[in-house]
Design brief:
By secondary structure, the protein is of the alpha/beta class. The protein folds into four domains: 12-70, N-terminal domain of TfIIb (Single Sheet), CATH 2.20.25; 80-145 and 359-459 and 483-528, Rossmann fold (3-Layer(aba) Sandwich), CATH 3.40.50; 169-343, Dimethylsulfoxide Reductase, domain 2 (3-Layer(aba) Sandwich), CATH 3.40.228.10; 592-717, Barwin-like endoglucanases (Beta Barrel), CATH 2.40.40. It is built from 24 helices and 28 strands. The strands form seven sheets. A seven-stranded mixed beta sheet has the order 5-4-18-17-16-6-7, sandwiched between helices. It has a six-stranded mixed beta sheet with strand order 24-26-25-28-23-27. A five-stranded parallel beta sheet has the order 10-9-8-12-13. Strand 6 (115-119), helix 4 (125-139) and strand 7 form a beta-alpha-beta unit. The termini are far apart. The model has no long low-confidence stretch (mean pLDDT 96). Bound molecules: ligand MGD (2 copies), iron/sulfur cluster and molybdenum atom. Residues 26, 151, 185-188, 191-193, 213-216, 218, 230, 232-233, 235, 308-311, 346-347, 595, 597-598, 600, 602-604, 667, 696 line the site of one ligand MGD. Keywords: 4Fe-4S, Iron, Iron-sulfur, Metal-binding. InterPro entries: Asp_de-COase-like_dom_sf, MoPterin_dinucl-bd_dom, Mopterin_OxRdtase, Mopterin_OxRdtase_4Fe-4S_dom, Mopterin_OxRdtase_prok_CS, Prok_molybdopt-oxidoreductase. Its cofactor is Mo-bis(molybdopterin guanine dinucleotide).
Length: 718
Amino acid sequence: MERQIDTMTFSVEQANKIMATQCPFCSVQCKMEVVEDLSGSRPAYQVTAIPNKASEGRLCVKGMNAYQHAVSRERLLHPMMRKDGALTRVSWEEALEAVSSRFTELQTKHGADTIGLYGGGSLTNESAYLLGKFARVALKTKYIDYNGRFCMSAAASAGVKTFGIDRGLTFAMSDIPMAECIILAGTNIAECQPTLMPYFTRAKDNGAVIIAIDPRASATVSIADIHLQVKPGMDAALVNAMLKVIVDEKLTDEEFIRNRTKGFDAVKEHVSSLNLEEIADYTGVSIELIRKAAIQFGKARTGMVFTARGVEQHADGHMAVRNFLNMVLATGKIGRAGCGYGAVTGQGNGQGGREHGQKADQLPGYRLIENPDDRAYVAGVWGIDPNDLPGKGVSAYEMMELVHGGTIKGLFVMGSNPIVSNPNATLVEEALERAEFLVVADMFLSETAKLADIVLPVSAYLENEGTMTNLEGRVLLRPAGRSAPGEVRHDWQILCDLAYSLGKEQYFPFRQSEEIFNELRVASRGGIADYYGITYDRLRKEEGIYWPCPALDHPGTPRLFGERFAHQDGLAVFQQVDHQSPAEQPSEEYPLYLTNGRLLSHYLTGVQTRRSPVLAAREIENVLEIHPLTARKHRLEDGALASVRSSRGTVIVRTKFTSAIREDTLFIPMHWGDAQNVNRVTNDLLDPNCRMPDFKTSAVRIQPLAEYLLEQKGRMTN
Ligand SMILES: Nc1nc2c(c(=O)[nH]1)N[C@H]1C(S)=C(S)[C@@H](COP(=O)(O)OP(=O)(O)OC[C@H]3O[C@@H](n4cnc5c(=O)[nH]c(N)nc54)[C@H](O)[C@@H]3O)O[C@H]1N2
Ligand SMILES: Nc1nc2c(c(=O)[nH]1)N[C@H]1C(S)=C(S)[C@@H](COP(=O)(O)OP(=O)(O)OC[C@H]3O[C@@H](n4cnc5c(=O)[nH]c(N)nc54)[C@H](O)[C@@H]3O)O[C@H]1N2
Ligand code: SF4
Ligand SMILES: [Mo]
């Protein structure tokens, strides 16, 4: 049963272990050195930023303290299996045997597609690639998707449609200070990618005008010259108005439109027919500000547009992004220095994680599972018959619905905490409780792992060697600094072990992450995200390489679209966007908009950051950002507990008064579970183009907690 794996071994007694690594959190992937000193009575740690081309030697507070969760006593150190209702320690042998026999049993009874796999953007490229291969080759199920569906899908699908390719930034970060005008739409870089802020302040020092679009005056908005405080969900409409001004003021780049794009006439005709007053009314932004922003962007010689989840996490997120791309194209601001579009990718490997096959419709290198040529190529690399490859599955939340309905009976979660991070979390929790067999691979007993039948302990960033692709499309090698504690294994190792138990070891012979990467290089070769020319050796020497990199002597591609776009005809595609208002509009019962997002000190569902004492202490509980005038109307004091309720559920949070938010909008961070989980309230409506949930617009009602509890009690006694 035990297989031979080459793992790095380190002497435990060795004092002052120096670990060169990368932060496990966001998409910047800041490089750092962690020194572990075991000579005293207690281990001591020192963290120093390593200068490099992406973060330039900066770290934010999360990176500085990331070692704390990795060395936490709460780390899972051995596999566990539910026995008599309780998770109980078992050997790897017993755990792996149980997983493979239960999966086989379920598949024999209900068919291959009864098993679902759910991955994440924290996984290395090697593990993400292998998870996709494991689903298709070892389990032959079509059901695989990952948490990046909630993160990047709107921008990714928009990039593919408009440009023919999806890479977070179409340029290297070093281009940012060359931009004369920068639009930051629904992106809170100051809290979410803090070490990037100096690129923007440098642009500002060079005279750039910064335009922020956000319902809140966030920390990022504080560097803006113009703030368009849009109503949640109204970005597409706002951009239509800006485009109208750009067209009316003749600020379009006609030569660029003629030579490099198609479809502009329809967009022009559409925006020309629109009424600015009406748009100002339903976006909540004055005509004066719309005009000012549009003219600044239109007249600038160089400029960039950045979008993130504020624009994208809506039922029309895809179209909203496409409208921003329309504006980039209409003004010819792409493919040259100081220009371009940036989808500010979220997770550490949010970029690489979406390129190599974790997505329902995808094979490595952005190949498509429904395309016969792509199937034949990848099947060839994997040594299987293309007819044995399953078809495409469904998106992450839809997979949860299938678990809820009983179509998917066994679920394997690797690198996500779906019962906290999915919309309409109550349904998802119910689904996972109903699942016949739930396996979770994690470093901690997350809210999701607590429900599992089997929990498999995985290595943390300090222990797991592999490549990560940052938001620019720059592939970086993260070395392992220490051996994994206890009986912990790497994600990719677990997949190989399981394949062995399932009798599929011939397809998973890997003993090191580099061997997996070498297969990934070939599997991605000739695809859109072509990694063929990137090797571990090169990554060690060159400090990161931008894909596409099709040959060993290719330098990589920092800036895209200099000559042509990635569509066959080389042209970018305009898309007319008829804006739509959020499905849930404030009503008498639910009179306010609720949006949500992030705080500087915590990361996603907080499983890791709440286990870092320094980070946990910075924000100990969830908060409700609310305008004081709104709060007064609803009888709420500052710092009081409140209930926030939608038609789906309720979250309990403490109020924090701020005049930085629109009066009709509330904001709650996403970092807490259970009663403080904002996703009990959020909307599970999905974007028809990319299946992104409508996280950022729900209609809600707020009450002081005591009032809410009395009401609930009344309901129960009636
Ligand atoms: N500290 C921290 N950093 C992180 C993360 C984290 O959890 N914590 N997560 C990482 C990940 S995975 C991601 S995806 C990124 C996310 O990074 P961001 O997308 O920047 O983060 P959010 O806070 O979700 O949303 C950004 C902004 O959108 C605004 N917003 C809300 N609704 C709307 C709207 O309808 N229109 C517009 N224009 N704006 C709106 C919010 O007020 C917020 O300021 O961050 C990454 N970095
Ligand atoms: N309301 C609302 N909901 C949201 C969002 C929002 O803005 N608003 N944002 C969405 C976005 S953008 C995202 S990305 C998702 C993210 O949401 P999740 O997918 O739930 O992400 P995490 O909370 O990071 O959960 C990751 C889990 O994997 C574990 N983990 C970390 N690294 C590894 C690893 O290398 N291997 C393994 N096996 N496990 C690991 C962690 O301990 C943790 O338990 O949430 C989405 N949900
Ligand atoms: S969270 Fe992001 S910005 Fe902060 S140190 Fe980590 S990678 Fe860098
Ligand atoms: Mo994300």
